[in-house]
Every structure is written in structure tokens, then in C-alpha cells.
Amino acid sequence: MTIDYRPRGVCSNRMVVDVENGVIRSLQVQGGCNGNLQGISRLVEGMKVEEAIRRLEGIRCGFKATSCPDQLAQALKQSAQA
User: Which residues are in the TSCPD domain (predicted)?
Assistant: First the structure.
């Protein structure tokens, strides 16, 4: 399954996540802090969706109510509910 998500409230503007059998196979992010998002992408590859949600949900970026990791968790949660 491919999740094409438009994050809100952060610098990145698109996340494309490939999930197979409940495991994240790849994550590509457009916009945002390139180095940090490449690191997050590599860290979540091979991780179970539930574990990624648990680890990333609620992370904030400065004074913002959300962050790119939190938006990734939101994208994964939406796809799990669909």
C-alpha cells in the first residue's frame, strides 16, 4: 500500500510511504529539513507501522503543535483506520 500524505503545520509538503504487511518499506519526504528527514526515513524503514506511530506521535517542532515525525505518525494512523 502506498500512502500519499500532505502534512499540515510543518515545512515538508508531501510524504509518500510504502507499507507492506504492516511494515514501512520506504519513506520519501518533499520539503522540510532534508538531512533530518533523510535520517528519519532510514530509521523507519523496516519498522512496524504501530511502532513508528508509538515512537513519533506527539513530537513537536519548536513552538509548533506538530512536527514532521508527528505528521508521519498521523499519516500512518489514517491509513490504518481506512
Answer: 7-78
pTM for this structure?
Answer: 0.94
* pLDDT at 58 (0 to 100): 97
Task: Tell me 49's DSSP state.
Answer: H
What is the helix (H) or strand (E) element at residue 20, kind and residue range?
strand 12-20
d(CA 65, CA 82): 24
C-alpha cell at 81: 483506520
- Candidates 82, 70, 71, 80; CA nearest to 22 is 80
* Helices of type H across the chain: 34-44, 49-56, 68-81
